[in-house]
Design goal:
mainly beta, 10-stranded mixed β-sheet, 1 helix, 16 strands, globular
Amino acid sequence: MTSSPNGARRRRPVLVPVALALAVVGVGVTAAFGGFTEAQEKPPPTVSPGDTIDQGQFRTQFIKAIDTTEKGDFGDTKRYLELVLKVTNMGENTASVGLMPEPGKGFSRSTTFASSLLRTRPEIKTKYGPKISVLSLGIESQQLHPGITTTVVVKYDLEPTATAPPEISLDVGSFVYEELGLRDQTHDWWLSGELKDDKGSFEPEVAARITLPVRKESS
């Protein structure tokens, strides 16, 4: 066995440490750009105005968004941004139209229709939130009866000088028919989503996203 000059051993090419170094650098770069985490969730399906969204308990058609004015009770003029929907209750029981979630207040697992109107973009800021009514034969109510298609109007108060957005987008949830819990086995239609922690924080699932142009319309 021959020896190298001066009795020093020949060094073999250092390939493994270089590969390891490259791997470490790769890990660092990957981590820096959010690698090794779950892929971002796919955006929800986008639907067009006039399309019908299957929400489980409801079939909902988003008709239009309008910037409109009405005469007040005292001869004054009231201005509103209205979202007009056609809603069919596919369940077997009467459902409450309810209230939309309040921005910044989190979500709760609800059984009311309006709880599925998760958020708007832009956020329409009003003091008391929108008024949501069911219109049938000129009569306002808060009930969606089974098997009947009715008009639902989401009405935001606008200041007379306010500028209405050119369009408004909504994230829409859906409902699942299941029992309330292990102790309470009552079945009902519940807003679909999942609990985020042991404190009961709830994150609803976005079933669809729709954007409506806002147009001016006389009352």
